[in-house]
């Protein structure tokens, strides 16, 4: 800064013999010396000198180029885009669309402007044809006839159109040479800001203009003019060309991958979209902040379609850390909290969204610079605000009715009701390893942030959001585990009761069987005693009969004994 103080003193005490252009040239020379040193403080001092030069000569091309390159060197990409935003293709498209929308309303104004720009070329006085040629006399005679027919004969044309055409013809030779550095510098700044489509168009245009300039220079030289001393190759130009080519290839790769991921998401393949977006977000080379925020938002939609609510909330948190004014991220996270009946957090996001809508209506423009892209338009904000207010009132009524603590933790973790303990432990382990607070700031290492961002505050917000989600997961795990333990205890109690009932039934069956056996044994004993008594009675009667028969035979005279086998006669 001390080096630039003499030059600033010259700006305050300018000599009368120096013009503004000469003073601007001096400032530019001093700024070149400071930029050549390469130190950041020297570049800041050179930027101050260039601002002073542009105050004296606002259209000094060399000062504009050096200022843009200095801002790019200081990583002040937003200032570069604000300085050269009229060269952005998206801005031109937006302006043309807005002009097409307002063409019907502005046709009357344009006609009035055209009538004001009309100029009268021929007066109503008489024409003398004495000094003209034959052709001119013929034309003047015809004009006199028309004048006699109508004394107010006038011919009109648009001065603005003529001026525009003349200026375009005068500047056509210089525009390519002057705008070449604009395309390259603006393309690099747009790439770092996440405007990849604009960056690709600008870098390709700058590369094409550089190639055309080199071709014209080579065709304008003779064969002897290509010797090494007379045709040196500037290392800065070569380095810039290589940097532009590498940056352009990286931009094309990112756009190609994002297009494939969005196509998979539109085709209803959320797992494939998640894989492709993860490939972009976890790449080795850092990506622009705005581009990463958009990819996190799209991957959140893919997670939501796949039923992974916790991962979707985490990506919404990352999107809001990189872009706190992202309307779609706030809406998505509010819907996710409402889907799991986490109503206080849903109300918090909706209130934040309401404040954002009110600030937009107060400022009469969308948040951020004019070149920033949004998923909504300004004319949609009043209707969205009315619907949002009604939705907030309904949610407050639900909270007042007692739905505050009825959170669906099954939907948060991604489990079904009645799941096993092993399923819960596996899902909880995966979510804790993925969403631990220590890893909440890991995505910032792969993100390109400008100098206008406070890294400490961003890291603190990332840790807070990660800690909130981690605590919510722990609450869900505890709640579901308590439910599973209660179900397991109830199942054990049911099994114990069933076992006791079965044992009682078995005991009853055994006692009943014993009673039946006792009855049968008693019946057998009774039947056995009866049969023994009958046998003895029958045997005694039979023996008496045999004795009587023997006495009778002895009386008759048959004295021979008769062999009788009592064993055969016994019953």
TrEMBL record:
Residues 495-515 are annotated as: Disordered. Residues 498-510 have a biased composition (Low complexity). InterPro entries: DnaJ_domain, TPR-like_helical_dom_sf. It comes from the Eukaryota. This is Uncharacterized protein LOC111451999. The lineage of its organism: Eukaryota, Viridiplantae, Streptophyta, Embryophyta, Tracheophyta.
């Amino acid at each position: 800064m001390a080096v630039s103080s003499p030059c600033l003193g010259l700006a305050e005490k300018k000599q009368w013999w120096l013009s503004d252009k000469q003073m601007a040239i001096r400032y530019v020379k001093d700024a070149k010396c400071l930029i050549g040193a390469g130190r950041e403080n020297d570049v800041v001092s050179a930027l101050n000198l260039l601002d002073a030069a542009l105050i004296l000569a606002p259209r000094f091309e060399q000062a504009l180029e050096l200022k843009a390159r200095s801002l790019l060197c200081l990583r002040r990409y937003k200032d570069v885009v604000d300085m050269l935003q009229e060269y952005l293709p998206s801005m031109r498209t937006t302006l043309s669309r807005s002009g097409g929308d307002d063409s019907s309303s502005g046709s009357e104004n344009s006609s009035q402007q055209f009538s004001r720009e009309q100029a009268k070329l021929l007066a109503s006085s008489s024409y003398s044809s004495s000094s003209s040629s034959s052709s001119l006399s013929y034309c003047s005679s015809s004009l006199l006839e028309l004048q006699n027919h109508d004394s107010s004969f006038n011919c009109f044309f648009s001065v603005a159109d003529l001026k525009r055409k003349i200026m375009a013809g005068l500047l056509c030779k210089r525009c390519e040479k002057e705008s070449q550095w604009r395309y390259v510098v603006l393309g690099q700044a747009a790439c770092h800001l996440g405007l990849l489509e604009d960056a690709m168009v600008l870098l390709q245009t700058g590369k094409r203009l550089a190639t055309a300039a080199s071709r014209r220079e080579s065709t304008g030289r003779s064969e002897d003019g290509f010797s090494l001393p007379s045709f040196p190759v500037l290392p800065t130009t070569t380095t810039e060309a290589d940097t532009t080519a590498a940056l352009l290839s990286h931009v094309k790769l990112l756009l190609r991958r994002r297009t494939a991921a969005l196509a998979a998401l539109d085709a209803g393949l959320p797992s494939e979209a998640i894989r492709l977006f993860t490939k972009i977000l976890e790449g080795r080379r850092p990506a622009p902040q705005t581009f990463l925020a958009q990819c996190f938002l799209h991957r959140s939609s893919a997670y939501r379609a796949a039923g992974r609510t916790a991962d979707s909330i985490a990506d919404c948190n990352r999107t809001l850390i990189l872009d706190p004014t992202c309307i779609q991220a706030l809406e998505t996270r509010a819907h996710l909290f409402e889907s799991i009946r986490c109503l206080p957090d849903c109300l918090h996001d909706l209130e934040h969204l309401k404040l954002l809508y009110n600030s937009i209506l107060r400022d009469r423009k969308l948040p951020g610079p004019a070149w920033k892209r949004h998923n909504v338009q300004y004319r949609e904000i009043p209707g969205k605000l009315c619907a949002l207010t009604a939705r907030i009132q309904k949610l407050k009524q639900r909270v007042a009715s007692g739905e505050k603590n009825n959170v669906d933790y099954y939907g948060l973790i991604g489990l079904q009701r009645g799941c096993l303990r092993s399923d819960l432990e596996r899902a909880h382990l995966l979510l804790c390893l993925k969403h631990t607070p220590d890893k909440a700031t890991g995505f910032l290492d792969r993100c390109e942030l400008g100098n206008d961002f406070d890294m400490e505050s961003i890291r603190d917000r990332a840790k807070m959001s990660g800690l909130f989600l981690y605590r919510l997961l722990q609450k869900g795990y505890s709640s579901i585990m308590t439910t599973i333990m209660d179900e397991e205890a109830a199942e054990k109690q049911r099994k114990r009761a069933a076992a006791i009932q079965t044992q009682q039934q078995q005991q009853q069956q055994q006692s009943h069987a014993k009673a039946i056996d006792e009855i049968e044994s008693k019946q057998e004993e009774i039947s056995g005693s009866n049969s023994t008594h009958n046998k003895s009675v029958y045997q005694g009667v039979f023996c008496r009969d045999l004795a009587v028969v023997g006495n009778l035979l002895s009386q008759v005279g048959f004295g021979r004994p008769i062999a009788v086998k009592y064993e055969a006669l016994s019953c």
